[in-house]
Amino acid sequence: MPRRRKLDTGVPWVELTTTADDWKQADPQLLATMLGEMQLIRSFEESVLDLAGAGLVHGPAHSSIGQEGGAVGSILTLRSSDGVNGSHRGHHQFLAKAITHVSGGSLDLGALVDDDMQAMLQRSLAEILGLAQGFSGGRGGSMHLQWLEAGALGTNAIVGGGAPLAAGNAWAQQFAGTDGVAINYFGDGSSQIGSVLESMNLAATWKTPVMFFIENNLYAVSTHASEASADQRFSIRGQGFSIPAWRVDGMNPLAVHLATQEALERMRAGDGPAIVEAEVYRFFHQNGPFPGSAFGYRTKDEEKEWRGRDPIALVAAKMQQLGHATEAEISAVRDQAKQAMADVVRALIEDDPEREGKRRIVPSLWPDPSVVDTGIRSDGTELESLTAQEPADISGEWRDVKLVDAIAQTIDRRMELDDRIVVLGEDVHKLGGGTNGATKGLAQKYGPERVIGTPISENAFFGFATGAALDGRIRPIVEFMYPDFMWVAADQVFNQAGKARHMFGDNNAVPLVLRTKVAMGSGYGSQHLMDPAGIFATQAGWRIVAASNAADYVGLMNAALALEDPVLVIEHMDLYGKADRVPSGDLDYIIPPGSAAVRRSGADVTVLTYLSMVDRALEAVEQTGVDAEIVDLRWLDRASIDWDTIGESIRKTNAVLIVEQGARGSSYGTWLADEIQRRFFDWLDQPVERVTGGEASPSISKVLERAAIAGTEEVVAGLERVRAAWGGK
Question: How buried is 369 (Cβ within 10 angstroms: 0-12 exposed, 13-18 middle, 19+ buried)?
């Protein structure tokens, strides 16, 4: 018979409950602040539900009534510099952080709401109603609440999507040498999400001071926790990642507070992350003013039992028992909160003069529709102090270099001058500079704090980088070994990094560079070879650069690292080993957005291309004799593309050929052709012609791979089609 030995993780996992002595020993001011914060949140939420019932909340109203104890118990001792974020049901967490910030963490129950508190409550409700005076100008609404001054990092409508961002904020605080922390709030439904579990693993590995706070309210919409997990004690997740965990009654704010204090002590001491699971209960349905029993997935008896455990009633009763407050004083707290919210509603809502007995939002409070597309990305003024130069105009000596070495040298120069820059990705710290040598020498020079090899976990490490970039104390350069891996991290790449600036009302800069390489022709098959330009060009918020030579790469990467936006830097394996040159100086020049380069002047057709296809296009022109003007786009995104150079060329040639290597379906040229025909239709003598690969992704077979992608032969054919259309010879 085999021998068996019971294994023990050695990781603490405890259930914490309060005793009568805990309540007696609790600071009366702490309990008063708990009561005041919870009552303000409750009254706020009751007002939201009232307005939702009247049809005045556009979109969902995810009430947190019943769950106030978890948020308040865990937040009321945090500093304003500590970060919190939450989920779509995040009003209570946002308000707890905002109230704590405004009050300094101490409320006077006799004067609960001063002018600053009243203003905060009004801005919060205005944001939920989508009004201009909201914290994000009404763009975030109910599910995306942010107030950076208070440390409210932004709630998140993607289930589990906030976990990497909060962890990234905590990583930035750790990197800056503070003892600051961050808390990510999510529910039982998020506890199975990959981004949450990946973030737990990475936070534990890096000893990041982030708390994963699980609000286990038993239901993900109507799906019971027992249907989602074999073990409904979701804090057990900590055992798999070496993260200590506390399990508490979330309807008891003091229990939450005591567990949180123990966790915070560990986190601030540099011992890494923690998990707190609080069992709570939302008194209403997932959305709106009706109980869950109205939809048949909960019983009225269950709801009655949980309502009997109301956290506000519990703290009020304990304060009266201990002689800290009278019934009249408790009632006065409730009255003050209700009056404050009545005043807020009165400032935002009025009787509708056109519908008797109905109300409406005061019309003058809506945002101006003309700002709908402002703040998607920066205005680029951060580049104004830098030296913009075309490499062709740089005089003096040049030196020979391969493009892959120019990449490492450019990043080295920027890291030398800006100690906020951190490089992270799979294997970037080893193998002599990653799998291709693009980070050569950086790990040895800057150490493991600034050149960080990550687990195979794109969703987590890109999300960490995004959270850190939003904080601003780290400027990450993230490497995805292959662009196809963006799909693994698509939420963090597109829903988070790409949308954050606009979604939160242009309150955030997102200084982040994502490097990746196109590997078509290398035999890595359909899951490692794509050109990501076409996908990213459709995603608002992202800038895109693609260099065809080493000198351009220097200027483009320098600009990317100076911008306050997420920038995709696309490289190509075909160019890595190519003999090339860069100026012998300090490599500090930039090539700003809106800077295409004409590689060959011509009169017959405008060829628009990028990366290695610039060389293929030049070869094709030599073979055909077509007098083509070849434009190396360099900046590819909607806001950064050089329409002036493109337009000038089209007005001269009256024909366009877009050349790219990759698959037709995800093609960059699809978007570009549409835009060209809208902008320059009157100057075109024929439809925009395109050269792309086939429909299928490249295969492993060398023959099938070549058949799937475009090369010089396909560009020759494209030029011949253009020539045939205008009868040329």
Answer: exposed
381-583 falls under which CATH superfamily?
A: Thiamin diphosphate (ThDP)-binding fold, Pyr/PP domains (3.40.50.970)
Q: Name, in order, each residue with C-beta under 8 angstroms of 40's C-beta and a sequence gap of 6 or more.
A: 95, 99, 112, 113, 117, 121, 337, 340
Structure tokens at 381: 């003024």
205, with CB counted inside 10 A (0-12, 13-18, 19+), is middle
Same fold, 14-362 and 381-583: yes
Q: Can you list the positions of beta strands (E) in 547-665? A: 566-572, 579-583, 597-600, 605-609, 628-632, 656-659
**Token digits of residue 472:** 């601003």
How many whole angstroms separate alpha carbon 655 and alpha carbon 653? 5
The residues that bridge with 73 in the sheet, in sequence order, are none
Supply the pTM of this predicted model. 0.95
Q: How many CB atoms lie within 10 A of CB 473?
A: 17
Can you give the three-state secondary structure of 630-642, one letter per residue? EEECCECCCCCCC
Which whole number is the average pLDDT over 247-275? Answer: 98
pLDDT tens digits along 35-61 = 999 999 999 999 999 999 999 999 988
pLDDT tens-digit map of 87-101? 999 999 999 999 999
Label residue 724 exposed, middle or buried (CB < 10 Å: 0-12, 13-18, 19+): exposed
pLDDT, one tens digit per residue, over 635-661 is 999 999 999 999 999 999 999 999 999
Spell out the domain ranges in the chain. 14-362, 381-583, 598-725
Number of H helices, E strands in the chain: 25, 23
Q: Are 16 and 261 in contact (CB under 8 A)?
A: no
Two structure tokens written together for 269: 């001491």
Secondary structure (DSSP) of 264-297: HHHHHTT---EEEEEE---SS-SSSSS-GGGGTS
Enter the tokens of residue 521: 């022709």
Tokens found for residue 577: 């080993």
Task: Give dist(CA 150, CA 154) in Å, integer.
Answer: 11
Among the listed residues 473, 368, 377, the one whose alpha carbon sits nearest the alpha carbon of residue 83: 473
Distance between CA atoms of 172 and 472, rounded to whole angstroms? 8
- The one-character DSSP state at 485 is G
pLDDT classification of 726: cutoffs 50, 70, 90: confident
pLDDT of residue 645: 98
The CATH T-level fold of domain 598-725 is: Rossmann fold (3.40.50)
Fold of 14-362: Rossmann fold (3.40.50)
Buried b (16+ CB within 10 A) or exposed e, 309-343: bbbbebbbebbeeeebbeeebbeebbebbbebbee
**Residue 493, token pair as written in the block:** 């790449």
